[in-house]
Amino acid sequence: MFEERLKQKLAVQKEQGLYRNPPEVSEGDGRTVKVAGRTLINFASNDYIGLGRSETLRKAASDAFMRYGTSSSSSRLVSGNASVICEAERAYADYFGYEDALFFPSGYQANLAILSTLFGPDEMLLFDKHVHASTVKGMQLGSAPFRGYRHNSMSHLEKRIKGATGNPVVVTESLFSMDGDTPPLADLARLKRTHGFRTVVDEAHAYGALGEGGRGIARGVADVALGTFGKAMGLFGAFVLLPSLYREYLLNFASPLIYTTALPEAHAVTALAVLSEVEQADAQRARLAHLSRRLTHLLTDRGFTVCGEAHILAVQIGSEERAHGLVKKLFDQGYFAFTARFPTVPMGQAIIRLSLTANHTEEDLEGFSDTLYRLMG
């Protein structure tokens, strides 16, 4: 019966066009991937400014792992609280303009820790309905009540604030991972001044790629901010920027941090090198912005509905089956793209999600837009 239940659920996934079977990638450089011996232009990478294949960072990581070894071999609260990790956390806090920082093995774990640990029955979490799945799971695991508000709607958020049964905490993203858009941060700041709530902002897709020096775009409103190393920062793991009191509390009570092996010391050393690369990447950020605008214009000129204000673009398709079919045809034409389907997006609102890197060329964009237009015809 157990195996039969699994088979039945997988069969339903296939019938609904929701089945996942990711291709095996043998090589990749951010701009391209090799699948089944074919090199494809990659529009599904989060290596936004090209640091994931940086020779400088490769050398820094290699030297760090040779010196410090490959594992911390302990949780953070036993013998894994290495001085170099603490040093790197202080450097990240200083660079991004926060009081303190805390490293995590993944962004998913970081969101679980923040939302399930910091807030309790005296608070009410008010979240944008398009936040990441890890944010939703963190709220579900915690003891604070939570309510959603319409995506990027400050009027609906204010209504929720006025009706909150506890101290409101607003939870949002600075650059939404599927929609590619940003909240009206000036309006959010105004609401924050008026109502005095706390704010948690996921800047995973903004850090490194947006803002002065890659510092993101939400420092003016975020009390707690989450960043990941595995996107524009070119590494792996995650970091949370926050007040020192919050850091102390998470170290004492956050299960996703307490009961897991700490990141190795070599990671922290490499993370320090990442900061230097990010600070010097103004040219890459400018090119990324240019390419993003260019692809948006190419697609909209061909009649596509495109959402996105930066390097993540969502091409509206609708049908799950049609979106999946288009991605398969794009693959055959030499382009690797990702279709976001239910439950990642609402049923019947499937998109082709495109993410750009500074290493893409104008020819890549023109070829992709021409091909997608032809396939839709």
From TrEMBL:
<dbReference type="InterPro" id="IPR050087">
    <property type="entry name" value="AON_synthase_class-II"/>
</dbReference>
<dbReference type="InterPro" id="IPR015421">
    <property type="entry name" value="PyrdxlP-dep_Trfase_major"/>
</dbReference>
<protein>
    <recommendedName>
        <fullName>8-amino-7-oxononanoate synthase</fullName>
        <ecNumber>2.3.1.47</ecNumber>
    </recommendedName>
</protein>
<keyword id="KW-0663">Pyridoxal phosphate</keyword>
<keyword id="KW-0808">Transferase</keyword>
<dbReference type="Pfam" id="PF00155">
    <property type="entry name" value="Aminotran_1_2"/>
</dbReference>
<dbReference type="InterPro" id="IPR015424">
    <property type="entry name" value="PyrdxlP-dep_Trfase"/>
</dbReference>
<keyword id="KW-0093">Biotin biosynthesis</keyword>
<comment type="pathway">
    <text>Cofactor biosynthesis; biotin biosynthesis.</text>
</comment>
<comment type="subunit">
    <text>Homodimer.</text>
</comment>
<dbReference type="InterPro" id="IPR001917">
    <property type="entry name" value="Aminotrans_II_pyridoxalP_BS"/>
</dbReference>
<feature type="domain" description="Aminotransferase class I/classII large">
    <location>
        <begin position="39"/>
        <end position="368"/>
    </location>
</feature>
<dbReference type="InterPro" id="IPR004839">
    <property type="entry name" value="Aminotransferase_I/II_large"/>
</dbReference>
<dbReference type="InterPro" id="IPR015422">
    <property type="entry name" value="PyrdxlP-dep_Trfase_small"/>
</dbReference>
<comment type="similarity">
    <text>Belongs to the class-II pyridoxal-phosphate-dependent aminotransferase family. BioF subfamily.</text>
</comment>
